[in-house]
Design brief:
about 35% helix
């Protein structure tokens, strides 16, 4: 039996107005009202945070954000700080997602525009530092592209991303850390990593974390799988000993589908 409490986070990406988001949250709350054995996080767009926060008052579902900037304030047009997220009631925040790194499974922007997305391991580390300073738990995303997988570089790539993002932190600082393995080639493509391989990579991440920061942190850190998680594959994925839930994209946009994914998580 797993010792770690399951966590299922919905990443809504650039979908839903504030009013639409509030309506979906209300539907979802009815569907998951009885689930007290799973942590559920919703990550709407920045403009929907306050509206969703109001709907979630008094509920067990927690509020997450999709990204953050590392400076507390300054001349950074279009950026949102950890201070602002904390004021909005955010408890979790996604950092290092493949789409902010410019690593797309399904490219939906012109190829010559990919450079706009320029996240690095160092900017991810800076963002984690900012979040920790405000008591917000980072959901750190790591994952390999199809080319990297075909070249046999999966383990090397995810280990490098993990080391780069967590450089300089100690065990106590990272008590609330969540890691999400998202194979880039499975995001938005409908492809899913085979269950055995997803478990192997998540176990590899846990071993790498143990080598970096010790067995205790590695054992208590929740490792999620993300990448086309759906109601029909969630149970098989979540039943694995080193997969503690999911970071869910498309399936989290519909209350019925997302509630089924949540139901697949075992305490």
């Amino acid at each position: 039996m797993k010792k770690r409490r399951p966590l299922v986070a919905g990443n809504w990406k650039m979908n839903y107005t504030a009013a639409e988001a509030a309506a979906v949250v209300q539907q979802l709350l009815r569907a998951v009202a009885m689930r007290e054995d799973v942590d559920v996080v919703l990550c709407p767009s920045f403009l929907s945070l306050w509206r969703v926060h109001d709907v979630l008052k008094g509920e067990r579902v927690q509020l997450g954000a999709q990204d953050v900037f590392w400076a507390a304030s300054g001349a950074f047009t279009g950026s949102v700080s950890a201070t602002m997220l904390a004021e909005a009631g955010v408890s979790y925040c996604v950092v290092g997602h493949s789409e902010t790194r410019g690593r797309f499974g399904k490219l939906e922007v012109p190829e010559n525009a990919v450079g706009y997305f320029a996240e690095t391991d160092e900017t991810v580390r800076l963002k984690i530092e900012a979040l920790l300073g405000h008591g917000i738990a980072p959901i750190l995303c790591v994952g390999e592209t199809l080319a990297e997988r075909e070249a046999g570089q999966t383990d090397e790539v995810i280990a490098a991303q993990l080391r780069g993002a967590l450089a300089g932190f100690d065990e106590a600082e990272l008590a609330g850390l969540v890691i999400a393995y998202e194979p880039v080639w499975a995001i938005g493509t409908g492809k899913v990593c085979e269950v055995d391989e997803a478990e192997r990579v998540c176990a590899t991440l846990r071993h790498e974390l143990e080598a970096m920061l010790g067995e205790e942190l590695a054992e208590r850190t929740r490792v999620l799988y993300g990448g086309s998680v759906k109601p029909d594959n969630a149970r098989a994925l979540f039943d694995q000993p080193n997969i503690d839930g999911g970071l869910v994209g498309g399936a989290s946009l519909k209350a019925d589908d997302f509630s089924k994914v949540i139901a697949a998580a075992n305490a």
